[in-house]
């Protein structure tokens, strides 16, 4: 159990951030401490070297002036006195002949070492635990004397030991403090992520009102919260549309089903004449056709929503589709005392599903006939735009127009404009026609828009890409 919790904690973002932070801090501290230690060591050695060089230059001048060793022994006494004064530093001096034989040495001098011809005069070197420098001093009419001045490194080593202990304590403190501080800082940094997780855990499809709080810092986590809130808004709108769609679909399905049921119940209540039975059956067939139309429209919308609408990609002559649709609606237009006029159509080819294009045109013509008063005019035109490589279909009527308030919702599913636009019960529809037009146009890479002026008429414009080999 404990091992499992440790493994789970080690996988968290907070733990990883803390681990990386601790590793970087500790590594930086170690490198810094090592650099400081080496810098201090270099500084101490350099200062010692400067002191030894000053001493050896001073002794060299004295030897030249006193003509050592022919003069009195004042120089030896001075050097001995200085050596005793710096005994705690292990300072010493040795005077050697050119063969390396010791002529004189202070009391603290170590045993004479061989000469070091490979080391230039005046260059400090470390030999065992001693730092020394030697110099050849020339004399008039006499052989030169080798002066060797040095000091033990024990004091320097003691200082470095103190520094090493301090550095070790600092490193241990970094090892202990860095992970704890890193874990605390990582917790503060990842707290908004915990809020996001807790909020998403509380979300339910039936309740999407809660949103992530924004801290106002403008950082990446705030941006993530805004993006997530936007996603929740879109999901909430989508689910609300789904609920409205299901409610409207159920209502629309219930109407023809109720009509069919009532017709059957009426037929079963008492004996009817043949003509009455035929009339009831005709009503059932009509309602069944309405039901079939609604189901087919719902299936088509479901296919477009799931990106499964089969556009086929076959060349379609739009002028031929328009001619057939206009011919089919001529009778309905005459019954309503409307003029259905088709302008001369150029030969325009697009790619897609012929049946879907025909359904778009049928829906637009059906709407135009429904909402155009008697003696009105409906005009259908087609053009090929060379610049945009589009086929542009227009269905214009001189009907009652569309109120401005309805324009924004015109292509919504099951949306119907003001009831005053529907003059009688026979003009009731499913409210899916324009939604299907938009879905088909979009699925074929096109678009649809409407231009309307209240009381003067409406024009629907459908733009579809021309076939690749079509001439514009």
Notes on the structure:
By secondary structure, this protein is α+β, with helices and mostly antiparallel strands. The protein has helices spanning 2-10, 13-66, 74-85, 154-202, 220-269, 274-305, 318-335, 354-370, 404-407, 433-443; strands at 92-96, 102-105, 125-127, 130-139, 142-152, 314-317, 339-342, 349-352, 377-385, 390-397, 447-453, 457-465. The chain contains ten helices and twelve strands. The chain is rod-shaped. Mean pLDDT is 82; it is low at 420-427.
Index terms:
single chain; 472 residues; alpha+beta; Beta-Lactamase; Helix Hairpins; Heat Shock Protein 90; 3 domains; five-stranded antiparallel sheet; five-stranded mixed sheet; 12 strands
Secondary structure layout plus pairing:
Elements: H1 2-10, H2 13-66, H3 74-85, E1 92-96, E2 102-105, E3 125-127, E4 130-139, E5 142-152, H4 154-202, H5 220-269, H6 274-305, E6 314-317, H7 318-335, E7 339-342, E8 349-352, H8 354-370, E9 377-385, E10 390-397, H9 404-407, H10 433-443, E11 447-453, E12 457-465
Parallel strand pairs: 7-9
Antiparallel strand pairs: 1-2, 1-5, 3-4, 4-5, 6-8, 9-10, 10-12, 11-12
Helix pairs in contact: 2-4, 5-6, 6-10, 7-8, 8-10
Estimate percent helicity: 40-55%
Instruction: Please identify, by name, the CATH architecture of the largest domain.
Output: 2-Layer Sandwich
Give the overall pLDDT as a whole number.
82
What fraction strand? 15-25%
In which order are the strands of the major sheet placed?
Answer: 2-1-5-4-3
Order of helices and strands: HHHEEEEEHHHEHEEHEEHHEE
Identify the CATH homologous superfamily of the largest domain: PAS domain
Instruction: Measure the end-to-end span.
Output: 74 Å
Structural class, please?
alpha+beta
């Amino acid at each position: 159990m404990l091992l499992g919790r440790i493994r789970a904690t080690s996988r968290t973002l907070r733990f990883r951030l803390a681990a990386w932070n601790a590793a970087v801090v500790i590594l930086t501290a170690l490198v810094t401490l090592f650099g400081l230690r080496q810098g201090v060591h270099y500084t101490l050695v350099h200062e010692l070297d400067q002191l030894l060089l000053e001493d050896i230059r001073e002794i060299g001048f004295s030897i030249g002036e006193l003509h050592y060793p022919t003069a009195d022994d004042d120089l030896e006494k001075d050097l001995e006195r200085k050596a005793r004064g710096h005994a705690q530093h292990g300072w010493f001096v040795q005077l050697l002949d050119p063969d390396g034989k010791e002529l004189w040495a202070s009391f603290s001098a170590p045993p004479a070492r061989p000469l070091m011809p490979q080391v230039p005069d005046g260059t400090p070197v470390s030999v065992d635990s001693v730092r020394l420098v030697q110099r050849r001093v020339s004399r008039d009419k006499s052989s030169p004397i080798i002066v060797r001045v040095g000091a033990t490194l024990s004091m320097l080593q003691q200082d470095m030991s103190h520094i090493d202990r301090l550095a070790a304590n600092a490193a241990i403190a970094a090892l202990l403090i860095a992970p704890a501080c890193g874990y605390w800082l990582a917790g503060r940094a990842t707290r908004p992520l915990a809020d996001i997780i807790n909020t998403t855990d509380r979300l339910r499809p039936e309740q999407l009102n809660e949103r992530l709080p924004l801290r106002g810092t403008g950082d990446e986590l705030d941006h993530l919260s805004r993006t997530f809130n936007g996603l929740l808004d879109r999901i909430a709108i989508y689910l609300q549309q789904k609920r409205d769609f299901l409610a409207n679909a159920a209502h629309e399905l219930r109407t023809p089903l109720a009509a069919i049921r009532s017709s059957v119940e009426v037929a079963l209540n008492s004996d009817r004449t043949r003509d009455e039975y035929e009339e009831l059956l005709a009503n059932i067939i009509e309602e069944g056709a309405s039901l079939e139309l609604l189901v087919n429209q719902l299936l088509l919308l479901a296919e477009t929503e799931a990106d499964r609408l089969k556009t086929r990609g076959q060349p379609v002559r739009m002028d031929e589709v328009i001619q057939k649709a206009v011919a089919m609606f001529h009778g309905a237009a005459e019954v309503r005392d409307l003029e259905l006029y088709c302008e001369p159509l150029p030969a325009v080819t697009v790619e897609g599903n012929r049946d879907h294009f025909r359904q778009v045109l049928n829906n637009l013509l059906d709407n135009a006939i429904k909402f155009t008063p008697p003696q009105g005019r409906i005009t259908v035109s087609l053009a090929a735009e060379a610049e945009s490589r589009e086929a542009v279909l227009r269905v214009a009527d001189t009907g009652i127009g569309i109120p401005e308030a309805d324009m924004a919702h015109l292509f919504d599913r099951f949306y119907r404009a003001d009831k005053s636009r529907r003059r009688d019960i026979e003009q009731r529809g499913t409210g899916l026609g324009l939604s299907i037009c938009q879905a088909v146009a979009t699925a074929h890479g096109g678009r649809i828009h409407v231009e309307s002026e209240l009381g003067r008429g409406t024009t629907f414009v459908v733009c579809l890409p021309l076939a690749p080999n079509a001439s514009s």
